[in-house]
Write a structure and sequence with these properties.
mainly alpha, single chain, globular, 573 residues, 5-stranded mixed beta sheet, 23 helices
């Protein structure tokens, strides 16, 4: 006769002090979900509360101007900043604006919500990917430091497509890691195909939202090399690199074909025309930086992840150089170093050569470096048991497990790494917050003091809105050409004019943008390539306004004026 003993009654018959297996499984399941839930709750609280203060960088206003033009005139709009690189962002914003009859004056708030929600998905995908590459404590600490890095945080609250693209990119990488895990475990082919298809679709979405996601294609090869069987990254056995690189190339090729096809349809242009325009745009920004321009290109790299990141990396490097390491530890460090090279080197090199580097361009470059650094700090805890180290070494030697699988086996008690990582993570976050004073410049040298920085930038946004109202009042009464000359501030003023009066018509006349009002008034906006051009532009105007230049054409720092020493960075071209 079948037993009808319930779990509760069976647990009563168990020896004192023992716990039923079903309770242990439930407890482990809850513990595994507590970390991402806490991470998401912290990220959400730090984003949505500050959304009203998030004016964003000048490119956010440029996108808002372009979307307004798309809503009114379609893909043929002549003022659509970056549409060739973000066609899906324009198309989605236009679709939802028309579907739900959004008021164009509230468009910025809707797009900020998009970025905030995308940042939560990116946070989850980053942690998910981290658990497939390294241990959970390391993945959690790396995700926490990334989520509160200045570059990542600002992208989470701005009306900009970069965060949406990063969210899709991290989803693609996480699905790619699952594909290789399913392959290593010889799971059903249908499951492997599903993960590969999800990865290709997400990568295509990332490219359509912001085409510079192509620079992270090396990350897919790095993840494949790390998770592929039969062994960890086999530097001395080059033939074993072939399969992961070929499969990664197939993923790139499929996503590239989908991207080019969909971009052509979204832009209603031929493939040759879109390719020529994209290439010409990149070529116009390509240069070898010298002098102050060199420092300006490197500034985003120094500040994007926060100053605390460099302190953490310095301590990890010291531990790596001077601490005694076993063969398995050295092999593991080499694996993550190879991943970091594939992941980080292409975007860092490309953006160094593109004039106008920005912290958002390199916001994800430091993720694998964080994994490497945090693992160095937790190596003593990870390899504290002889049998664990032997398990890892044997798995790496006989090829029965991948590097990460071996690490997960030997790290059967990951809570031992938490005491090693918690103070390091807290110290890095504190240094990032306090080391750099608050600043309204969120593109070159953002501060970790996010709340004060948002307030400073919002104060300047309010000043720009007041100035745009003054310009609109004078436009209908001034005789002759009324001009506004600037660089950083132009998009803010034009976008605010459109927000308050969407019927304004924008046109391009030579190197000027002309805003025409229904009452026949006009404002001529000149975006100065350099402060020296102020006099030449001003001679073509009857009346000149500027928030960035004085009457002699001397530069008055608009963004980052709180840092007097930063004037040279902001004025160098």
């Amino acid at each position: 006769m079948a037993s009808t003993t319930s779990p509760a009654s069976s647990s009563q018959s168990m020896p004192a002090g023992s716990v039923p297996a079903w309770r242990l499984k439930t407890r482990a399941r809850l513990t595994s979900w507590s970390a991402p839930v806490a991470l998401l709750a912290t990220a959400a609280a730090s984003r949505f509360i500050l959304l009203p203060l998030a004016a964003g960088e000048a490119d956010c206003s440029r996108f808002l101007i372009g979307i307004t033009q798309w809503v009114r005139f379609g893909p043929g709009a002549h003022i659509a900043y970056g549409a060739i690189f973000s066609p899906a962002y324009y198309a989605l914003a236009t679709f939802f604006t028309r579907l739900y009859h959004w008021d164009l004056s509230a468009l910025a708030a809707h797009l900020q919500q998009w970025s905030a929600w995308s940042s939560l998905w990116a946070t989850f995908a980053l942690y998910w990917l981290g658990t497939r590459i390294t241990t959970r404590p390391v993945a959690y600490a790396a995700a926490l430091l990334t989520v509160f890095s200045p570059a990542f945080w600002w992208l989470s609250v701005e009306a900009h497509p970069q965060m949406l693209s990063y969210a899709a990119l991290l989803l693609a990488l996480a699905a790619w890691a699952e594909f290789w895990r399913a392959t290593a475990r010889r799971s059903r082919p249908q499951l492997q195909y599903a993960w590969a298809a999800l990865s290709a679709a997400a990568l295509t979405a990332a490219l359509l939202l912001k085409s510079d996601a192509v620079l992270y294609c090396g990350a897919f090869a790095g993840v494949a090399l790390l998770l592929d069987k039969p062994a960890p990254v086999p530097v001395h056995r080059w033939r074993l690199w072939l399969r992961p690189l070929v499969v990664s190339a197939a993923l790139w090729g499929l996503s590239a074909v989908l991207f080019l096809t969909l971009r052509q349809r979204l832009l209603s242009a031929s493939l040759s025309a879109t390719q020529h325009k994209a290439g010409a745009t990149v070529a116009s920004f390509l240069q070898w930086p010298r002098g102050l321009a060199l420092l300006k290109q490197l500034a985003p790299v120094a500040f994007a992840a926060g100053v605390g990141f460099w302190l953490l990396l310095a301590v990890a490097l010291a531990w790596f150089v001077f601490a005694h390491k076993t063969a398995s530890q050295r092999q593991r460090s080499l694996c993550l170093a190879v991943l970091a090279c594939f992941w980080s080197a292409p975007p860092l090199t490309f953006w160094f050569l593109i004039r106008g580097n920005n912290v958002r361009h390199v916001a994800l470059c430091f993720v694998p470096i964080l994994w490497w650094a945090l693992e160095q700090l937790s190596l003593r805890a990870l390899f504290h048991r002889r049998d664990a180290s032997q398990t890892f070494s044997e798995s790496a030697r006989d090829g029965s497990r991948s590097t990460t699988e071996g690490l997960r086996v030997q790290n059967s008690r990951p809570q031992h790494t938490i005491p090693a990582l918690a103070p390091a993570t807290a110290l890095a976050m504190a240094v990032t917050f306090w080391a750099v004073p608050a600043s309204s410049n969120v593109t070159l040298f953002p501060s970790g003091n996010l709340l004060s920085s948002a307030q400073l930038l919002n104060r300047k946004a309010v000043a720009m809105r007041h100035l745009s109202q003054v310009l609109q009042d004078h436009a209908g009464r001034s005789s002759g050409r009324l001009c506004y000359l600037g660089f950083y501030s132009n998009p803010y003023i034009i976008e605010d004019l459109l927000r308050r009066q969407p019927s304004i018509t924008l046109s391009v006349s030579s190197d000027w943008i002309v805003a025409s009002f229904p009452n026949q008034g006009r404002i001529w906006f000149g975006e100065l390539p350099a402060p020296e051009a102020f006099s030449a532009y001003a001679r073509r105007c009857n009346r000149v306004w500027s928030a960035e230049f004085n009457g002699n054409g001397r530069h008055r720092l608009f963004l980052g004026s709180e840092w007097k020493w930063a004037r040279a960075f902001a004025t160098s071209q």
